[in-house]
Amino acid sequence: MFKLTKAEKSWAMYDWANSVYSTIITAAVFPIYFATVVKNSGSATNGDVYWAYATSIGTLIVALLAPFLGAIGDYKGFKKKLFTAFMLLGASTTLLMAVKDNWKLMLVGYILSYIGFAGAGLFYDSFLTDVTTKDRMDKVSAFGFAAGYIGGSTIPFLISIGLIMFADKIGISGDTAVRISVAMTSVWWALFSIPFLMGVKQVHYIPRATGSTVAAAFRNIGHTFKSIVGNKKILYFLLAYFCYIDGVGTVIHMSTIYGSTLGLDSTKMILALLLTQIIAIPCSILFAHASKKFGSLNVVLFGVCVYVCVCIVGFIMGQNVENAAPENLEHAKQVSTTLFWVLACLVGTSQGGIQALSRSYFGKIIPPERSNEYFGFFDIIGRFSAVVGPALYGLGADISGRSSIGIISIIVLFIVGGIFLIRIKKTEKL
Question: Please, what's the b/e burial string for 360-396 (b: 16 or more CB within 10 A of its CB; e: otherwise)?
């Protein structure tokens, strides 16, 4: 029987806390609402294009800051403070989004809240080396994702669905229901971060630098970069991660707004994403168990292949609607809604597992005392790739006038990421 320690449980609770943001703000409820607000404003550009560009801006800012933040965070006493600052930034600006009805102000709030979300995530990931040992990392990391799906991704999601579906019966408007959901996201995130703040401590660190902390941080960044370049396993993994996590992030951010742009039923899409969360709970744990038998890299590679299928299904879904004759449009939307459910099931099998094993595998191949700095590079790789993916989607959809072109473009990143994972396996055999 695998039992978690108090520190491991406290760490995993932050996945419970912040997953509500991933579900309601970046994936399901808020993107659909935002697309509707943009459309009603009379904008000549679809909301999914603005959403893609805003996501790129937010992730670019975090990507540029990540190595420096990581280097500072490795000093004793800094990691928890930086985590807290970003968490509070994210939770507070999310709350502000609940009272704005101008789509431009919504985008500003989204960018700031996403910076807080991503910045806190950098330090949260790096705390994995502080709360557990290498032989337990796969299961602890996977348990965190499972906790996120059970709590943050499911319970508040169900409440949001109930508010939206039965808004008229309880005497509120659909817009008010969305705003309540956004406010709930902020409160849930902050409230359930408390166990992490109380129960997790920085165990591994490097001595505080004499003289300028900033100058020392930049020296450490250079040292870590040279170490990464000199270690083929770490280098190839980061290159692979750069590619495939781009696709994962783009699917998370763009799925519902993509479907909304195609004219699919919002309620059915939200219910399909609920199914994603339900499927993801056991599959995250299953990925961890499978890693013991087949190896972490093989299981991650399997997840990459699943996402190739996700891209293909998404492309077919879009083409079906975009190429439909006017008299067949409603039937095409029904077929594409069914395909959206297929896509949701595919994502559910691998979304949590591929992220959990990537995090734990990286934690096992880096020196624990410099975990925050290494995870700073891990995060910058993930954030820069999340800049490229949504931007590619936005450009493809904007230039072609077809959202399906945007979604299929990311398949290349999964293929290249898979190739680098295979290179790692060859390196390990040498």
Answer: bbbbbebebebbbbbbbbbbbbbbbbbbbbbbbbbbb
Neighbouring CB atoms inside 10 A of 174's CB total 15
Q: Which residues pair with 206 in a beta bridge?
A: 75
Q: Count Cβ atoms below 10 Å from residue 17 Cβ, excluding itself.
A: 26
Whether residue 310 is predicted with pLDDT greater than 80 in this model: the reply is yes
- Determine the Cα–Cα distance for residues 422 and 410; give it in Å rounded to an integer: 19
Q: Which helix (H) or strand (E) holds 159?
A: helix 155-165
CA atoms within 13 A on the CB side of 317: 30
Task: Name the one residue in this structure whose structure tokens are 């067949």.
Answer: 328
| Residue-wise pLDDT tens digits, 259-295 | 877 888 877 887 887 788 788 888 888 888 888 888 8
List, in sequence order, the alpha helices (H) in 192-265: 194-199, 213-230, 232-262
Contacts of 254 (CB under 8 A, 6+ apart): 48, 51, 52, 390, 393, 406, 407
Structure pTM? 0.71
**pLDDT, tens digit, 9 for 90 and up, residues 333-383:** 888 888 989 998 999 899 888 988 888 888 888 877 677 667 767 776 766
Secondary structure of residue 206 in the 3-state scheme: strand
Q: What is the DSSP letter of 326?
A: G
CA max distance for the chain: 73
Residue-level length of the chain:
430
